[in-house]
Design goal:
single chain; about 230 residues; alpha+beta; 5 helices; 10 strands; globular; disordered C terminus
């Protein structure tokens, strides 16, 4: 092999290795093990990166109840930060934040640490009046407020808790129609059941009929009849 061909081969190999290393570095916050959906909202300001931000509502359109904010927050800085609040501009909705364990603020650890919102065993961000605050299919403005970085805003897609989002959605609430049907069924069952208040029956009331002794001894008339026999 000529010297020029060897140089070309070495250069091509170096280029491939460089691209591979860049791809590996870029995949840090996009690792498949984090379960991030690639077409979800994402943004980065300062040391904070937010990925897969989504508002997940009740699975049924006519169901009432809370919605949740889901996503993953990364902290690329050297000090921990707390997620102080999440707000939905243009709405009066309140978002309640809770850590994965115990009480206190939601803390994002430093040096590439991350916190996931939504799903079993993770921190949670619950919107109390989900249907009032967000409509399925909309791109809802959401603002995350951090202790050091401050406000980080983006637009998050609003989706029902189905398919990919079933495991991270809010707790299911009964729909109004289902609740009404259950109430009507209970009322019908109650009206058809017997009252159990008939009088004059010793077997139903548990009391002896009039003129009968309460003890297990025979009456005087029964004794006289037996003697005459």
């Amino acid at each position: 092999m000529s010297r020029s061909l060897r140089r070309g081969t070495f250069a091509a190999s170096a280029l491939v290795l460089s691209l591979a290393s860049l791809t590996a570095c870029g995949a840090g916050n996009n690792a498949q093990t984090l379960g991030i959906k690639p077409d979800s909202a994402a943004t980065s300001i300062g040391d904070i990166t937010i990925q897969a931000a989504t508002l997940v509502t009740q699975p049924q359109l006519d169901a009432t109840g809370p919605a949740v904010v889901t996503g993953t927050v990364f902290n690329n800085g050297r000090t921990a930060q707390t997620l102080d609040s999440i707000t939905l501009p243009g709405t009066g909705a309140t978002v309640k934040l809770s850590p994965a364990k115990g009480k206190g603020p939601v803390t994002v650890p430093p040096n590439g640490g991350w916190v996931r919102l939504g799903g079993e065993g993770n921190a949670s961000a619950v919107i109390e009046d989900g249907r009032e605050a967000a409509k399925d299919g909309n791109a809802q403005p959401v603002v995350f407020s951090f202790s050091d970085t401050g406000d980080v805003g983006l637009r998050a897609l609003v989706v029902p808790a189905k398919s990919f989002f079933e495991g991270v959605g809010p707790s299911t609430q009964p729909s109004p129609s289902a609740s009404a049907s259950a109430s009507e069924s209970s009322a019908a069952d109650a009206s058809e059941s017997p009252s159990g208040t008939e009088s004059g029956s010793a077997s139903e009331s548990g009391q002896p009929e009039s003129g009968q002794p309460e003890s297990g001894q025979p009456s005087d008339s029964a004794s006289a009849s037996s003697s005459a026999g």
